């Protein structure tokens, strides 16, 4: 197996620049940002543990698939913390919210 040519790497990097992937948690994130990030991780964990597609989970939560995608990729600026909690309670009604 050989290493790809520089032109191939440059071409792939240009494609990746246009893609919107998962947002990482900033090292200097506030406690609220960490909490919201953790909620997104809970949705993702639930999806994986229950072998659900994004579409399946969006149906369970009664939201459109594009909004589900935003939650799963931590792109949640348009969601209030209350809304995220209320959505999560639909899949885990016994969840306990702790603030440390």
TrEMBL record:
Domain HigA2-like helix-turn-helix as annotated: residue spans: 49-99
Matches recorded under SUPFAM superfamilies: lambda repressor-like DNA-binding domains
Listed InterPro entries: HigA2-like_HTH, Lambda_DNA-bd_dom_sf
Top-level lineage group: Bacteria
Pfam families assigned to the protein according to its UniProt record, in alphabetical order: HTH_37
GO molecular function list: DNA binding
Annotated protein name in UniProt: Transcriptional regulator
């Amino acid at each position: 197996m050989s290493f790809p040519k520089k032109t191939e790497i440059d071409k792939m990097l240009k494609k990746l620049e246009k893609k919107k992937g998962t947002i990482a948690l900033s090292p200097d994130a506030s406690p609220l940002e960490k909490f919201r990030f953790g909620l997104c991780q809970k949705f993702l964990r639930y999806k994986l543990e229950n072998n659900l597609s994004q579409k399946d989970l969006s149906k369970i939560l009664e939201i459109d698939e594009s909004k589900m995608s935003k939650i799963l990729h931590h792109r949640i600026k348009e969601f209030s913390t209350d809304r995220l909690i209320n959505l999560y309670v639909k899949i885990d009604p016994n969840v306990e919210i702790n603030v440390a």
